[in-house]
Design the sequence.
């Protein structure tokens, strides 16, 4: 590799930071995303990104959501420059029925931002997504939002994270008041108080006055009670809180915590500045050829998401590829590890809200959208040079199960082709009964809307009408050690055994309670909520 190319790669990697936001619906992800774009200069006035919040409410009809949003309810990638850094925000679906997409997006993210509503604290969807981040051991930044409304106390919120997630917290900033009395935050990095002024609907960046703790103006700018409360809180923090430890943050064991209000822009810029300082740059990844550094000169990447356009006039599919090493160039020809075929990557796209720009080059940490004429499946690796295969993307425990039936035997072929392609695309997981006589595929999903998508697409793209028969299970666990391990424990009650797409045993349970019962009856039986990688 020429030194010039090496420097080019190094510079690009140094510059890049990517992240995804994990949150429960309504915590303010859309609002925060928009405000980050505002501060990043990617938009000039909040509201420019199409009002997705209002579309999100049409939960009853996913097609309608799809049409309104133009491209898809699934993720896009937002890229913007801020203080000489290039930030890639891997946007995740707002609707929790599509959280499988969020799980996969997290596989492509180097950092995560855990967004919580400060009045509610930890919520179910956030807990689930947190577990995925923990598995990947990526840095997690916490942003408590909506401090402009009555909230739980900051110490209580930190305690919840420590106790329930077992994650150490380090408050990088601290709120001054809350609700109508939310005046600003104290930044522990610079030891400055930032007082904000609200702007009309938070359209523009908030006016920010920064003063030191000892500044005599404090008395007139800040209510006495708020000032004493702040001093008291800071004493507690300094006294019992842990020391800042960047190493622990990078290992995902300590979370830097921020308080603010995305709607009024309070604390957003301080968060962004600290994020840039602490976030991990694109790093090494495990592959069949060992751990590969981003500066490995050959291009490699993996598909973490496929997205189909529902508009029948533009029925294109886009494969989202996370660039891991080397440099991507438009029209380059790469190898496709799973099939061994050569693929020319023409018309690569970069997605920003609804506009698709063509990308000429991309570097590690970037995401590119490739037109996918049925070539790519979730987890596929593409590469130049010697053969490389990344670890793949795990499947997570589905929560809804249903038989999918094809009432028309003459449509047998189309039905199976459709089911298999939709599985590869990651629209749904497929399982089969362990009883050979029951051949109908079992759809396994995280959200009900996934079923609707599958049925709709089978009808529209494969011309097959199908019936769904719901099954009464809500928990799935893969049996580690396979069929052999399962045989050893003998007959199990209150669970049913099915096979995943690769013929591996999976136990389905009606509820968590039944699962716990089996675990306590058979402590040797090792079960996993995440499918083992590979086939
Ligand atoms: P989501 O993507 O996480 O689902 O949340 P979204 O940003 O759509 O925000 C959910 C609701 O919370 C919105 O109100 C939004 O305005 C509000 N919100 C977001 N950040 C803040 C904040 O910092 N403070 C306060 N007080 N509210 C916030 P909505 O009434 O559902 O929609 P809209 O009519 O305001 O658009």
Sequence:
């Amino acid at each position: 590799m020429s030194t010039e190319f090496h420097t080019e790669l190094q510079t690009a990697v140094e510059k890049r930071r990517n992240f995804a936001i994990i949150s429960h619906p309504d915590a303010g992800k859309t609002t925060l995303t928009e405000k980050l774009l505002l501060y990043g200069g990617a938009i000039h006035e909040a509201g420019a990104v199409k009002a997705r919040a209002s579309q999100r409410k049409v939960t009853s009809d996913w097609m309608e959501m799809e049409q309104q949003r133009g491209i898809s309810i699934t993720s896009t990638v937002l890229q913007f420059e801020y203080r000489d850094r290039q930030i890639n925000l891997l946007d995740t679906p707002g609707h929790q029925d599509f959280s499988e997409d969020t799980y996969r997006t997290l596989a492509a993210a180097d950092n995560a931002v855990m967004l919580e509503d400060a009045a509610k604290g930890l919520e179910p969807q956030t807990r689930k997504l947190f577990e995925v981040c923990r598995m990947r051991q990526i840095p997690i930044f916490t942003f408590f939002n909506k401090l402009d409304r009555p909230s739980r106390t900051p110490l209580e919120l930190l305690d919840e994270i420590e106790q329930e997630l077992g994650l150490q917290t380090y408050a990088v900033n601290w709120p001054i008041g809350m609700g109508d009395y939310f005046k600003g935050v104290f930044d522990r990095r610079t030891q400055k108080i930032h007082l904000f002024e609200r702007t009309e609907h938070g359209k523009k960046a908030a006016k920010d006055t920064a003063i030191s703790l000892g500044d005599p103006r404090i008395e007139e700018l800040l209510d006495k009670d708020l000032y004493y409360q702040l001093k008291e809180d800071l004493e507690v923090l300094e006294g019992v809180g842990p020391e800042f430890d960047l190493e622990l943050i990078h290992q995902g064991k300590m979370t830097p915590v921020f308080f603010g209000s995305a709607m009024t822009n309070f604390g957003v810029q301080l968060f962004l500045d600290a994020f840039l300082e602490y976030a991990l740059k694109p790093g090494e990844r495990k592959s069949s050829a060992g751990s590969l550094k981003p500066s490995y000169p050959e291009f490699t990447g993996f598909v973490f998401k496929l997205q189909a356009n529902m508009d029948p006039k533009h029925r294109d599919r886009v494969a989202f590829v996370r660039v891991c090493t080397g440099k991507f160039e438009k029209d380059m020809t790469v190898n496709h590890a799973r099939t061994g075929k050569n693929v020319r990557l023409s018309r690569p796209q970069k997605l920003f809200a609804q506009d698709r720009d063509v990308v000429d080059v991309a570097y590690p940490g970037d995401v590119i959208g490739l037109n996918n004429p049925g070539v790519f499946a979730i987890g596929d690796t593409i590469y130049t040079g010697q053969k490389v295969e990344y670890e793949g993307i795990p499947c997570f425990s589905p929560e809804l199960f249903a038989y999918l039936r094809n009432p028309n035997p003459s449509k047998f072929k189309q039905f199976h082709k459709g089911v298999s392609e939709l599985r590869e695309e990651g629209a749904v997981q497929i399982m089969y009964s362990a009883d050979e006589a029951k051949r109908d595929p079992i759809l396994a999903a995280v959200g009900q809307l996934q079923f609707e998508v599958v049925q709709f697409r089978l009808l529209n793209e494969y011309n097959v009408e199908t019936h769904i028969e719901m099954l009464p299970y809500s928990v799935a666990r893969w049996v580690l050690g396979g069929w052999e391990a399962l045989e050893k424990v003998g007959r199990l009650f209150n669970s049913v055994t099915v096979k995943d797409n690769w013929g591996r045993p999976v136990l389905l349970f009606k509820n968590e309670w039944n699962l716990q019962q089996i675990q306590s009856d058979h402590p040797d039986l090792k079960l996993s909520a995440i499918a083992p990688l590979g086939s």
The chain has 15 helices and 31 strands. The longest helix spans residues 224-240. The first strand starts at residue 16 and ends at 23.
